[in-house]
Amino acid sequence: MANLRDIRRRIKSVKNTAQITRAMQLVAAAKMKKAQDQAIAGRDYAEQLNQVLVNLKANVAEGSHPLLKHREEGKELILVISTDKGLCGALNTNLYKKVRSASNAETHYVTVGRKLRNILLKTHKDQIDADFEVKDPVPFADARPISKFLTKAFLEVGYSKVSIAFNNFVNVMNQVPTVIQLLPINGDDLGEKLDYEGVGQVIKETARINVEYSFEPSPMQVLDTLLPLYINFQVYQTLVEARASEHSARMVAMKAATDNAKKFIKELTLEYNKARQAAITAELLEITTAMKAME
């Protein structure tokens, strides 16, 4: 009977775990939908901004703006966007592998998210320049201090390149660890747009449509205003995609955990029934044996 009690306890424990994982799955699904809506809502804005920048760049000299100048020497700075919480599968592990392959011994880091920050503190403690926290869902205002810090680091500290490492959300089952160059801004890539939930569209051709603009007071002054906006929006978009990747990966992981728990409950229930049947059979045999002994 002790064996039966142990099996009942295990079944109860697994059922409680399944309830928790199921609840976490539903919460992650709801948060993922909000992150998707945020990214989709910014598509039209990104397209129009890219169109203006592509045409604006055609009116200024190549490399005339500090944010467009390429440098041959200098260290690289990478903004690493990971998660604050776990239970999202191999999402952070795959991103860390991508960061390692894209960096070198002199690379410096800016972190968003506790998971990879803790890893980088162990391996590159002296090379972390800053750490930022971002709310959920991601407010647009949270991207401003990050983009300002990256821009200042590029202009004043003298980094040769500033990149962003994040998990690009392709669909619910597919999140791709990605590293993109943020600074210096590559004029040839201004019209490109990142994939999002399987509807990835390259708007380069649309952005390069020759539209006649009149710039006041001058193209360079307009560029001074628009480039910070472009950088800020790029940081915001990667934050949103990383957050959508986190919630989708957690939803899938929790669904798998719930399914495994249900499967385990069935196996334990079958084992319990077999043990219970064996115990009943043993009792019947004892009764039968006792009755025969009394004859």
Question: How do you describe this structure in short?
Answer:
This protein has 295 residues and is of the alpha/beta class. It has a single domain, classed as Pyruvate Kinase, Chain: A, domain 1.
Overview of this structure, please?
It is a single chain. The protein is an alpha/beta fold and 295 residues long. It contains 7 helices and 5 strands. It has a 5-stranded mixed β-sheet, with helices on both faces. α1 runs antiparallel to α7 (219-294), α2 packs antiparallel against α7 and α5 packs across α7. Mean pLDDT is 84; it is low at 196-209.
* Mean pLDDT over the residues: 84
Strand arrangement, major sheet: 3-2-1-4-5
CATH superfamily: ATP synthase, F1 complex, gamma subunit
Query: Which CATH top level class fits?
Result: Alpha Beta
Report the CATH architecture.
3-Layer(aba) Sandwich
Q: Give the radius of gyration.
A: 28 Å
Amino-to-carboxy terminus distance: 29 Å
**Poorly predicted sequence stretches spanning 5 or more consecutive residues:** 196-209
Let me know the largest β-sheet.
5 strands, mixed
Structural class by SSE content: alpha/beta
| Secondary-structure element pattern, one letter each | HHEHEHEHEEHH
Strand content: 5-15%
Strand tally: 5
Question: What is the tally of helical segments?
Answer: 7
Query: What spatial form do the alpha-carbon principal axes imply?
Result: elongated
Number of domains: 1
- State the CATH topology: Pyruvate Kinase, Chain: A, domain 1
